[in-house]
Specification:
2 domains, 410 residues, 23% strand, alpha+beta, Alpha-Beta Plaits
């Protein structure tokens, strides 16, 4: 706990550096400095700004021109990494900053929490990981003398997952096991659903507002498709049963993240684009999910004569298959044991109706991976925050886990 203030100061520095997609380099440099102070070798791994030609990749996002990189810290030595700690440095936009109690990129402490965009998802994870390593440096300075540890700060975890994929496939940022420091409330996230991003372009019949009652407004028509997709996804719970998701109330959510349409108050738009995030069953590949979404859109449109044509469905980001790491897996047991030794209770292993980069390691490289991290509030929302005490508690668990794993030769 005597290093906690240092970890909180690190978190403040990370949050103050706006790292929305394409703007992550300043925050990465803050972390690189801390990893260097912890005695790790720091490498800046180049990361493409354009499309990635890999069938496992998501659809690349438009980012500012210029070189990009990710940061990998490793303990000294050679050979394959024994364990990789992982986090994504990118954060989602702040939405409407005027609605925040304090500015989203001005980290603020109150009521035992730190507020700011990315405090919970997931810069608090970097603070947790560095705090654990700092404490281990005091009690076991030679812990990593014979087995190597890595700590990766990646990009595009919020939109494509391509950062972790690229580093693993092309830069050897891979280990025998991976722990992602995502916010889990000190429980263990062992499974997620599939997630697909698509842009839905709906055509209408444009006209003057005076005749709007006779027109086909693409915004109205698009909402028919959105609601139809929500009904379809809700039915997937029974159509594609998954006992591992029985405790998830709504695993396959369809989220409408944005709408673009029109250029004049008194004109019916000619078209509208809906930005959708769609959850899908773990039994499906991303390709199967996209096919199923297209078919569902076709059925919805065929049942409504107001549509002048079939909307265009275009993949636009995440193409993420779901995964699950069995609760009996050694990695789950080891981290659960460490948490029980540190706090006297065993963490809950659970699945979530979302996605994390753990899927990349499990699905694409056959490497066991799970998520463990602090308690966050309102992630992706206004006044996002992280519980500061949970960072300390999580660091205690992680330190004990690392001490056992690297000290016992596991």
């Amino acid at each position: 706990e005597r290093h906690a203030e240092g970890a909180f100061a690190l978190l403040e520095g990370l949050v103050a550096a706006d790292s929305t997609v394409g703007r992550g380099q300043a925050a990465l440099e803050v972390l690189a400095g801390e990893l260097h102070r912890l005695g790790l070798q720091v490498d800046r791994l180049p990361f493409p700004s354009g499309p990635i030609e890999d069938p496992r990749a998501g659809v690349s996002q438009t980012v500012p021109a210029g070189p990009r990189y990710q940061v990998l810290g490793t303990t000294p030595g050679s050979g394959r990494l024994h364990l990789l700690l992982n986090g994504h440095m990118d954060v989602v936009p702040a939405g409407s900053p005027a609605l925040w109690t304090t500015a989203p990129f001005t980290p603020t402490r109150r009521d035992g929490r730190m507020y700011g965009r990315g405090t919970g998802d997931m810069k608090g994870g970097f603070a947790l990981g560095c705090l654990a390593l700092r404490a281990l440096g005091d009690v076991a300075p030679d812990l990593f003398a014979h087995r190597r540890l890595g700590f990766l700060a990646g990009s595009e975890g919020e939109c494509t997952g391509n950062g972790g994929l690229w580093a693993a496939a092309h830069q050897d940022a891979l280990a025998e096991a991976v722990v992602l420091l995502e916010p889990t409330g000190l429980d263990l996230l062992v499974g997620v659903v599939g997630v697909l991003w698509v842009d839905l372009e709906v055509r209408g019949r444009s006209t003057h507002a005076e005749s709007a009652h006779l027109a086909a407004n693409p915004v109205d028509l698009g909402m028919v498709v959105v609601e139809g997709l929500r009904t379809w996804c809700a039915g997937l719970v029974e159509q594609v049963p998954d006992p591992g998701l029985s405790e998830v109330t709504s695993p396959y959510n369809v989220n409408l993240g944005g709408v673009s349409a029109g250029d004049w108050h008194s004109s019916v738009p000619a078209s509208a684009t809906f930005r959708l995030r769609i959850g899908f069953p773990r039994a499906w590949t991303a390709e199967q999910a996209e096919q199923q979404v297209r078919a569902a859109v076709g059925r919805i449109v065929d049942a409504d004569p107001r549509f002048p044509g079939l909307p265009t469905v275009t993949a636009s980001g995440l193409r993420a298959r779901g995964y699950v790491l069995e609760e009996s897996h050694e990695l789950v047991t080891a981290l659960s044991d460490a948490h029980e030794q540190a706090h006297g209770t065993r963490p809950r292993a659970y699945s979530l109706g979302s996605t994390t980069d753990a899927r990349t390691y499990v699905n694409d490289f056959g490497v066991p991976a799970l998520c463990f991290g602090a308690l966050a509030h309102d992630i992706h929302g206004v006044d996002e925050s992280v519980d500061l005490a949970s960072i300390v508690a999580g660091a205690r668990t992680l330190a004990r886990f690392l001490l056992t794993r690297f000290g016992s030769g596991a």
